Amino acid sequence: MHLAAVACGERHGEVVNMLKTAVTLSQRALRFHIFAEQQLQTSIKADLDSWPAFIQGKFSYVLHPISFPHEHHEEWSQLFKPCASQRLFLPMILRELDSLLYVDTDVLFLQPVELIWDMLMLFNSTQLIAMAPEHEEPRIAWYSRFSWHPYYGKMGINSGVMLMNLTRMRITQFKNDMTPVGLHWDELLMPLLQKYKLNITWGDQDLINIIFHYNPEMVYTLPCHWNYRPDHCIYGSNCAPAEDEGVFVLHGNRGVFHSDKQPAFRAVYEAFEQYTFGEDLRQSLLSRLEVALNETTHTYCGKASHFFTTGLQKSVRRLQRATPPGD
């Protein structure tokens, strides 16, 4: 299973913690593709190489430099946030890969990666990417209220979790509003930026929304609990799958893992950060997290924080069933 992330600036701790959640809860082999600034690569490598042998046996990794098309390097590198638009170029950079799961660094897996990876098998003949809606509730939806450009569906899609069939993305011709014929992914990006750069707020995510506005049949829609953000609980719960099954992927966008704005999100981040590989998951991770979340019930997301532990409980039970006593 191939998992990619892009780390720039102060994202070293986040990307390592995200990878830690993936390798802790998954049972299949993982290959990490980490795109990072040169000054971050050494510290990321040191952290991953320090993990115990029984964990290192579950994954391999490769560190990539940040890389944009030479003639427009400055424009792409500064779009929205430093390095964020790197993910647009993954189909061209990772040409040897058929499929890839990309996640933002501010993501935590509460379910094993194989559960989302296996959704590739659910794609129909036209689908080539799986993403979750930007919002579930129209009254707080950003795209439908404020956007100055086309967007996918009724409320847009969020690019923080993207499951991609790269082979299809490379060979497909995408309909667009600039040419009468379809353009390949690598032909489409720069003309799209030139046309819409004065109208986009969220950088590359807006470009992705524009592309799939004109190609909606190519999107497999992920349920919101695969990309659960503060907007799903900050004004009251509005992600029904999380209420039924728990949160599967927690996305702490807007820096909530590191601030006091959403203490429930921060509690999950710190629980994984403080967990030591090899310790009992139920006692050292889950029980401590439940205690910490009980201190956040004065907030709307804290009131919904049992959704966070529901998904994690399933993962822990699954791992404990698969691990013989004494191992």
Radius of gyration: 19 Å
Largest sheet, order of strands side by side? Answer: 3-2-1-4-7-6-8
Distance between the termini: 24 Å
Strand content: 5-15%
Query: Looking at the structure, what is the overall shape?
Result: globular
Tell me the number of helical segments per DSSP (H or I, 4 or more residues long).
Answer: 15
Can you count the beta strands? 9
Q: Helix amount, in percent?
A: 40-55%
Q: What average pLDDT do the residues reach?
A: 91
Low-confidence stretches: none
3D structure, described in words:
This protein has 327 residues and is an alpha/beta fold. The protein contains 15 helices and 9 strands. Strand 1 (2-7), helix 1 and strand 2 form a beta-alpha-beta unit. Helix 1 packs parallel to helix 2, helix 12 packs antiparallel against helix 13 and helix 13 packs antiparallel against helix 15. It is globular and about 60 Å long. It starts with a strand and ends in a 5-residue tail after the last helix. This is Glucoside xylosyltransferase 1 isoform X2. It comes from Danio rerio (Zebrafish).
Summary, kept brief:
With 327 residues, this protein is an alpha/beta fold. 44% of the residues are buried. It is built from 15 helices and nine strands.
